[in-house]
Amino acid sequence: MTTTQYRVIGTRPVRHDGADKVTGKAIYTADTKLPGMLAGFVLRSPHAHAKIISIDTSEAEATPGVHAVISNADFPNVEDKIADLGEGSVNLSYLSANCMAQKKVLYRGHAVAAVAATDVHIAEEAARKIKVEYEVLDSVTWVLDAMEENAPLLHEDLVTDSLGEKADKPSNVPVHLHFEKGDAATAFKEADVIVEREFKTATVHQGYIEPHAVVADYNEDGRLRIWTATQGSFTCRQQTAEILQIPLGNVLVTPCEIGGGFGGKITVYLEPTAALLSKKSGRPVRIAMTRADVFEASGPTPGSFMRVKLGAKNDGTLIAGEAWLAYDAGAYPGGMIGPGCMCVFSCYDIDHAIVDGYDVCLNKPKTSAYRAPGATQVAFATEQLVDEIAQKLGMCELEIREKNAVKEGSRRVDGPVYPPIGLVECLDALKQSEHWNTPLEGANQGRGIAAGFWFGCGLKSSAACTVNSDGTINLLEGSTDIGGSRTAIAMQLAEVLGLEANDINPQVGDTDTAGYTDVTGGSRVTFATGMAAYEAGRDLQQQMRTLAADLWDCSTDDITIGEDGVFSGNGKAVGFKALAVELFAAGEHLVGRATVAPECPTNGFGAQIADVEVDPETGKVTVLRYTTIQDAGKAIHPSYVEGQLQGGTVQGIGWALNEEYFYRDDDTMANASFLDYRMPTMLDVPMIDTIIVETGNPEHPYGVRGVGETPIVPPPAALANAIYNATDTRMTELPMSPPKLWKAMQSDQASE
Amino acid sequence: MPTVFIPAPLRELSGGTQSVVLEARNVREIVYRLDAMFPGFKDRICIDGNISPSLQVSIDSVMTSKGMIAKVQPHSEVHFIPAIGGG
Amino acid sequence: MSASKKVHVTTTINGEDIDFLCEPRHSLLEVLRDNLGLTGSKEGCNNGNCGACTVLLNGRPVDSCLVLGAEVEGAEIETVEGIACNSNLHPVQECFLEGAALQCGICTPGFMVASKALLEKDPHASEETIRFDLSGNLCRCTGYDKIVRAVQAAGQKMSTEV
Lengths: 752, 87, 162
Fold this sequence. Notes:
By secondary structure, chain A is α+β, with helices and mostly antiparallel strands. Chain A is 28% helix and 24% strand. Chain A folds into 3 domains: 18-25 and 458-596, Aldehyde Oxidoreductase, domain 4 (2-Layer Sandwich), CATH 3.30.365; 32-137 and 209-260 and 265-297, Aldehyde oxidase/xanthine dehydrogenase, a/b hammerhead (Aldehyde Oxidoreductase, domain 3, Alpha-Beta Complex), CATH 3.90.1170; 304-456 and 601-751, Aldehyde oxidase/xanthine dehydrogenase, molybdopterin binding domain (Aldehyde Oxidoreductase, domain 4, 2-Layer Sandwich), CATH 3.30.365.10.
């Protein structure tokens, strides 16, 4: 555990952008207005699967107030090229076709044309005059159906790739993954107890309150300026430039304040369309998605079918695991099946395991990450089976987890061995918690626990700091701030220099001003961009050491820098600010910079406890009490770490208890609104207690581990286990909404 | 000498061998040496001479983005695993 | 169908007399954001389900996406832009910041307005009342815990400052 006492780290300063956010001054993309700006509207397919026979835009173009109309003909041909987005790769021709359908529409909501006009109502009216002739095709929206031999085929040329080996005929399965560790077949024969179940999870959406929006201004000098709600300005720039086939350096992306992302604002949807409308009209164009568009045409996260099996010895040792997983990819390949396979047994030291995973195309919007992509689904399966084994062996569900928890040296099914990690410490904290030690005894009440894991990325970040003449610092970094991260980054710089958090003015730069920085996602920002800020601070210190030697008439080697940032040498001891002021007065100005690319995952583990009460008449689940425990390595700003834990947990509660895409018989979404896509309101959840475990990450100067994603992993499983303990009904489908739970309870009672 | 784990789908090429200890200074040497031992290995792992974008190389549990030029140490453990990011 | 003849509306917004022209089909939210440049109120859903556009209409919290611009003739409207007093933050704003009750901030303006209205009516509102009264304001980032605590803290501050 980390025991170092810090001055700034671990405190709770008010965030630097706070006043703007509570006064309404903060500028989000849809708030951005440019002179002469037009409003754009995207026309979308009403069909889940259809060929586009023709598009006639003439009436729309003739409408007064309309300045430009575009469709697939305006998009350049993009080859089948794989681009590295810094957080996974993408096939550019798919990405382009997802922004504007080419020959086929593959989901209801798929963009087919767009209009720019003097206001959004005129644009919409004109767009509805565009005549699109479709040939409607059969469609499919359930993974297993899409895998059938005679399923409607989304892509005529798509064949299954099994690590480089291609199948000989097309299907809807772009990828088959296979992992083996040890000899699972033999190990199952030696198991004393085996449990196996099938699980299903529905499509869910990240549910960020801010719809996607973009402003594009195609300047007369050929430069394209984009203001957008994005988790990654640099990846947005690259995707947009590649789709439009224009030089990367011609594109400037300015990230506005962003109203939530959770993984859903990494892929571009509107940028190329807005750019082309701007080019055609000669005016800036703003497009914002409607809420229905967000549900139907952005990137929800995979629904799934899973068959998971676990085998154990009588003493509770888990010895064998098997998983067969099929995940939605949505309309185009590239779903979350990889991490799903890697996470299914990631919390437990199981010597023998075999995992097969399938990425499956079907007529839903192309899937995107939702916090820990692919991990929540498999945790729903595995964490319930662990409970079942414990029950069969008469063991406490916490004890079986403690017994089998992964530690440093444990090997994951995909191969790598864990460095120092904190699952054991999290389970210990759970055991000591007041929640766990408070009995739950009411009727129809039950308690459940579950563990969770997410890798946590490193990737690349840059930071630059300019010292002002008063010794304060302007910090420029490139991580778009979706949760207060600019303050956590500033705090790390303040700590190393011996300053206060409000001596730093952090700013999120754009792609012209900030150094290259990968996405805000993957639980990486406090870790990697914080590290960049720290290193930029160290760079500053070294420069100042050299300059101070001149000032103080000694050699650089005579000057040391303490943990408190104080420079000492030749009888003097001066803090950062005082030395900076002195140097400024002596004509020296200072800029520090750093770029980092840490490669070790931060390995964020957590565990959660859920207490529920189930109404037997309605199947409604009330969450009575909830505790989220997670290893943060070191919490830079504890309030915002708690906030990540609480926010991710409540998203997981929504995923568990009510959220799903309902599909009509024609495979169109029936509930594309916040009324019927029912996310938790504050009336639906209790306070979420948090316990931050700090095991210290040896790969970071302050021990930080990424925390943003793991909290969404355990809740469906913890709640399923709690529901089982309350009702004796084992739920294997998400969501565990009242009608589904009620039916399952009725069915269990009938068969008793 | 580093230990390189053969991804499960490629064990059909390696005759079932799960890991191999071999002399190599970087990932390129590993890939080429494995291809010499198990013909066809390189074409499964690489596209256009680089590690396939859907894969990452893990060297001593650290995910390198350097692909073929990533260095390995004498006692390194190397895995080829799916590329992961986050949300 | 071309744009309809515009309506002239006179109203009071954040204590100031304001008049504007709008089409009959324009919502109050559109008027605030697009005509008047008051972009503090946000559009999250445009059909009254998220509360990001909450304003006070004659003292009552409403979703401004469900109110027509033409409807507010003679009304008094308060938006998030009117909550702070000169450069001083309102207790609700201070407590949200001190309590870290926001992350991305997009829902925050709606919560500012709705919380202020609730606490002016009932500064000692219980957790249950707070959760019920503010259930029309969705937040996807925070899980609501810190929001509830911030509202409670603001209520305490407001009752001691009176």
